[in-house]
Amino acid sequence: MKIAITGGGSAGHVVPALSVAAQLTQSGNELVFFGRDGSIEHEYAAKAEIRFCSVPSAGLKRYGSWSNLRMPFTVLRGIGAARRAMRRERPDAVFAKGGYVTVPVGIAAWLCRVPVIIHESDHSLGLANRILARMATRVCLSEPARAKPPRWLARKTVVTGLPLRHDLGEGNPDRLRSQFGIKPDAEVLLIFCGSSGSARINDAVRSQLDNLCRRYAVVHVCGKGNLEPSLDGTPGYWQYEYLHQEMTDALWLADLVIGRAGATTLAELEALGKRAVLIPLPASVSRGDQLVNAEAYARRHEGRCRVIQDDDALAGGATLVEACLQLAGAHASFSRPDPAVIHQAASRIASETLSAARPRRRRAR
To answer: Is-annotated flag, keyword Glycosyltransferase (predicted)?
Structure first.
């Protein structure tokens, strides 16, 4: 069968989507990825060697922005482009992982009578998934809904778990330590705050870089366009826009992680038993899901997790260093994840996608 994949805007959407894609590929299905040209999903799909179809899209800014006025027109253009691509590609089903690019793709699939399967990582449906839920054939959840869903939604809902990156069980920390030239006895601090990075967190880290480098080898994944050339060559500091194949090795290598509190990030940290300083996205620029995620994660891992707020107190980085020092003596409990557990959710979602698919006749090429 031919399955279309869509999802984007952040690695938290794209990485799980590609985990499902890997399971679909293993069972011999043809794939095509729908996303925005030049985006993170475009880059990741190319790395995974999945053919890409470009779809214009725009999201709703949760703060005042003139771009919100253009957003409906961009979405309409995206629906038109996605509908033309659907007719050309003729997929048997669409799997949508979240992010605003999924809205025009999902609507176009519904208009073309192609089954749509969506997945939600967080405790409640995000805006894109709330829009698509009515049109979806299946709604896959990472965990049971906390509130009783309406009957129409309950009928199509299945709890599948959250797909982890497909190579999470194959990390080789020694490979990355050797590649970067990190001393064998050095503790490693890994900083990654989403695929777009965070200017406030990057500034806080760099303002305290001397203090951090005294204790750690610092690997800083700062997001596209956020490199600081003046820090190139700083002893004990390595900065990258993204880590692709190396990200699994970096997660295994890290003794401590500073990161956001997206559901995908937390699932990876939990699977590997990592100590973490979490800086959830504030409610002023999000729907507040990361605040809830971080609070719940810190309760489950008391002693191995600190949560600090992304507010004015973060400036200067003092609270960041203090949180790292508080975890310095915490018990490290790295565990090698079971590959069967890693692939369980992605395999379940792939099965749901294939069971919902409608094989379609295709024109001879």
So the answer is: yes
The pLDDT, as a whole number, for residue 339 is 81
* pLDDT for the residue 105: 97
Residues of the chain with pLDDT under 50: 364-365
| CA distance between the termini of the chain | 16
pLDDT of residue 364: 46
Q: What is the largest CA-CA distance in the chain?
A: 64
Dihedral sign computed on CA atoms, order 327, 332, 334, 335? negative
Which residues have CB under 8 Å from 6's CB, separation 6+? Answer: 17, 33, 34, 35, 41, 55, 94, 95, 96, 97, 101, 102, 105, 106
Establish whether 90 is an annotated binding residue: no
Determine if residue 165 is labeled as part of a ligand binding site: yes
Which of 233, 246, 120, 226 shows the shortest CA–CA distance to 179? 246
Q: How far is CA 89 from the centre of its chain?
A: 26
Distance CA 235, CA 239 (A): 11
- pTM of the complete model: 0.88
Tell whether residue 12 is among the known ligand binding residues: yes
Whether residue 195 is annotated as binding a ligand: the answer is: yes
What confidence tens digit (pLDDT) does each residue in 113-144 have? 999 999 999 888 999 999 999 999 999 999 99
Indicate the DSSP class of residue 62. Answer: S
Among the listed residues 139, 145, 140, the one whose alpha carbon sits nearest the alpha carbon of residue 123: 145
Q: Mark out the alpha helices in the chain (DSSP H runs).
A: 11-26, 40-47, 67-89, 102-111, 127-133, 151-154, 173-180, 199-207, 209-215, 246-253, 263-272, 289-300, 318-326, 339-356
